[in-house]
Automatic annotation (TrEMBL):
<dbReference type="GO" id="GO:0016020">
    <property type="term" value="C:membrane"/>
</dbReference>
<dbReference type="GO" id="GO:0051603">
    <property type="term" value="P:proteolysis involved in protein catabolic process"/>
</dbReference>
<keyword id="KW-0645">Protease</keyword>
<feature type="domain" description="Peptidase M48">
    <location>
        <begin position="62"/>
        <end position="242"/>
    </location>
</feature>
<keyword id="KW-0862">Zinc</keyword>
<keyword id="KW-0482">Metalloprotease</keyword>
<dbReference type="GO" id="GO:0046872">
    <property type="term" value="F:metal ion binding"/>
</dbReference>
<dbReference type="InterPro" id="IPR051156">
    <property type="entry name" value="Mito/Outer_Membr_Metalloprot"/>
</dbReference>
<dbReference type="InterPro" id="IPR001915">
    <property type="entry name" value="Peptidase_M48"/>
</dbReference>
<dbReference type="GO" id="GO:0004222">
    <property type="term" value="F:metalloendopeptidase activity"/>
</dbReference>
<keyword id="KW-0378">Hydrolase</keyword>
<keyword id="KW-0479">Metal-binding</keyword>
<dbReference type="Pfam" id="PF01435">
    <property type="entry name" value="Peptidase_M48"/>
</dbReference>
<comment type="similarity">
    <text>Belongs to the peptidase M48 family.</text>
</comment>
<protein>
    <submittedName>
        <fullName>Peptidase M48</fullName>
    </submittedName>
</protein>
């Protein structure tokens, strides 16, 4: 287990090292759609410093609790994977709430959260669910599978363009479009898979996934768009409920 949480967020949620994705690093998997305003730290009433301190303590406590469970699930489900999660905070100002999973150059799984996301959750259950969800993306190999799908899409679309006699620029455009289509082909399925395993991680860490899934009621519903990256919020909540019913019966 390794944390990169500078001085426990300096208590003011402003002192952590941001995640820097260098050229050539795998791009993030998952991500949280922008939340609506009105989280605990984003309202104007009350003591801003006190709310920041509470949010910082909550993040540290959830990290301490969820990370070992995520690591254990990783070793159980994906025995050959690197399960040494690194949890980082992006402190760049003005960013919309976001969390995502990627890997560093050494192949270590990185779970990244920005300050706005940490501040926007209503309770520890929601934060634990988001953390479990992002960890699940790594455990299930979604980043690698997305890259493979993108590569296949690029080859297929560029090949079709070449067969029609397209010029070099058109072939390159077709390759880029094919990669984008390929990467999105199973993204909704990946999100639902991560919701399912994330529910298990959240529950085994001692948090309530059903309360955690209420986070979906606070973010815009993407609907069921063709080649959209996220499934409808209602479908995601249903996955959490069905998963809880299943593991509760065991």
């Amino acid at each position: 287990m390794r944390w990169i949480i500078a001085a426990l967020l300096f208590v003011t949620l402003s002192a952590c090292e941001p995640l820097v994705l260098e050229p050539g690093q795998p791009q993030p998997q998952g991500g949280v759609p922008t939340t609506r305003p009105g989280g605990p730290l984003l309202t104007e009433d009350g003591d801003l410093k006190a709310r920041a301190e509470r949010a910082a303590r909550q993040f540290v406590e959830v990290t301490r609790t969820v990370e070992p469970v995520a690591e254990s699930e990783c070793r159980r489900v994906a025995s050959n994977a690197n399960c040494n999660f690194i949890i980082v905070v992006d402190d760049r100002p003005g960013q919309p709430p976001n969390a995502f999973q990627t890997v560093d150059r050494a192949g270590r799984p990185v779970l990244a959260f920005n300050l706005a996301l940490i501040a926007s959750v209503d309770n520890a259950d929601q934060l634990a669910f988001v953390m479990g969800h992002e960890a699940a993306h790594h455990i299930l190999g979604h980043l690698e599978r997305t890259q493979q799908n993108a590569a296949v899409g690029a080859v297929v679309f560029s090949g079709l363009a070449a067969m029609t006699g397209a010029n070099e620029d058109a072939i390159r455009s077709a390759e880029e479009f094919g990669a984008a289509v390929g990467a999105r082909r199973y993204s909704k399925d990946f999100e639902l898979e991560a919701d399912q395993l994330g529910t298990i991680v959240t529950a085994r860490a001692g948090y309530d996934p059903l309360r955690g899934a209420e986070f979906f009621t606070r973010i815009p519903d993407p609907g069921n768009r063709f080649l959209g990256t996220h499934p409808p919020n209602a479908q995601r909540i249903d996955v959490v409920r069905r998963t809880m019913a299943r593991i509760g019966a065991n």
